Amino acid sequence: MNSIREQFPLLRTYKDLVYLDNAATTQKPESVIKAVTRFYEKQNANVHRGAYKLSDISSQLYVEAHTRVASFLNAYPDEIIFNSGATAGLNTLAYGLTKNLEKGDNVVLTRMEHHSNLLPWIEMSKRRGFEVRFIGLNPESGELLEEDIDTCIDERTRVVTFVHTSNVLGIVNPMHRLITRAKAMGALTVVDACQAVAHQKIDVKALDCDFLVFSGHKLYGPTGIGVLYGKKERLEKMDPFHYGGGMVARVSDLSIAWKDAPMKFEAGTPHIAGAIGLSAALKYLENLGWEEIFSHTETLTKYATETLSKIKDVKIFGKNAERRGMIAFEVEGVHSHDVAQIFDSENIAVRAGQHCATLFVQELTDNGIVRASMGIYNTKKDIDKLIVGIEKVKKMFHV
Amino acid sequence: MQDVDIEQMYKEAILELNRNPLNKKVLPYFSFELFSSNPSCGDECTIQVQLDRDGNIGDIGHQSKGCAISQAAISLITEEVKNQNIQDVKKITKEKMLELLGIPITHTRLKCALLGWSILQKFPE
Ligand SMILES: Cc1ncc(COP(=O)(O)O)c(C=O)c1O
Fold first, then answer.
1. What is the value of pTM for the model shown?
2. Which of A196, A348, A370, B26 is the most exposed place for a label (fewest CB within 10 A)?
3. B67 to chain A, minimum CA–CA distance in Å?
4. C-alpha–C-alpha distance, residues A195 and B69, integer Å
């Protein structure tokens, strides 16, 4: 996958940049940038509104984007809702799925969640009185505690919501186990697939989850566009979170009939260019081949783990767990921000700190975590460059 | 993209303050205590101040964790304000704090450099 870098204008601009912050956001291939530009130059009009030709074109492209996302997830197009990102999706679900919950009911999360899959549920629990429970983590391996899955999820559990692949350590959670237990207890399931989608094709039918969310910018699409998938029958029963134009079938003074999903959940003018950009990103990734992408990530993750394991004074977090797409570590005795700053002087871009998962990270270390996350354009050379960075840190800090 | 001079940023004086911070201690008696943090980095700092009869800072101590820049900055500002009147301390500008630190600071590291200073700005008069 060596020539891939050439297809990314930003990476052509910064030839020496070693971009390893893909879990935060990915760079955009030329085809995505072009699709967005083409839309604004040649296709721009509002959707589902005008009778004129341009509106027809943009509406069609917008519908096609739903279809492409649906096929990526093995879902139906009317099960795909576009919004501004995973954060919007998770807020919509936290609001919509807890409407009728009461004291005695509970919602189950994990200690691994990104703040966007934590704070909305905490806020709703304050308003509605249900309990929020956490599946704990094994402090050594970083993995979910198996026994907590059965004890936390019980007959009063209404929703189980969890990250597919962790944005902190890259740990892949036991999806089947979690979903089976939730279903056995009659609870709905929500999957945060933000990190997973960058590395693999997702099959919601095989997973059999009720809902799934992700953000377009993490899989080479534009910022500001995200996806909320919901099983058709679930979406029918859920109330919207936003209210506005385009979502009603009929309005009288007192009664409103919603259109069917996805329109019911897409009030207001949507991010049409974003949806088209996301669609272009999926097309680009399909052309590369999902199997190829998956194995590329696996190879790099494994290589990074092997390489960094050999360096003294480097501690890898979640080293022996099933991990994907990233390596999280610390240089012992050095704060992660200092590490990232020194890496930057070598043109290596990584993320440092708490990764929107304060509680989890604080349990692991006082220094914050350095995270190098891989994308399709990264190579083993980029990982080797990490070593150069680490050696420089050790030299400067006299480790 | 502008490069910072990394050798300047992590010059020996800064690293020395990171290894051996000044005033990192718990005061047995203190007049005020305030805490602040940078949630995204995990930097945390508590500063205790003991005021003397004239309202001057007689002793000062901090308990903090964070990156080298924040540790050095907290050391320098706590040293700077000793024996100063709390009202004068609150007049210390952001620019002055950065001058004390004396190294190039990027936009993203500003909050590290200013953590200790920002706590002192919040002390009651
Ligand atoms: C696992 C996970 N969930 C949710 C989010 C939130 O995504 P966004 O900020 O695009 O809404 C992120 C992104 O940082 C993430 O990594």
1. 0.92
2. B26
3. 5
4. 31
